[in-house]
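Are you able to produce any protein sequence you like plus the matching backbone structure tokens because I've never seen that pairing?
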Amino acid sequence: MSAGEKAKAKAEQAKGAVKREAGRAVGNERKTAEGRGEKAKGDLRSAKEKAKDAFRR
């Protein structure tokens, strides 16, 4: 996995987790949903890069 893409994936995962927990803490369902979405996007980016690495070998 390229270092840049790996960093983007981790950043999205972290940002989504923080936003989700902040939304939960204040009872804001919209922020909670946005956080879940961003974390899922980061998870998918990470999975894509791992799959690319698997096919390179």
Observations:
- The chain has a mean pLDDT of 91.
- The longest helix spans residues 29-56.
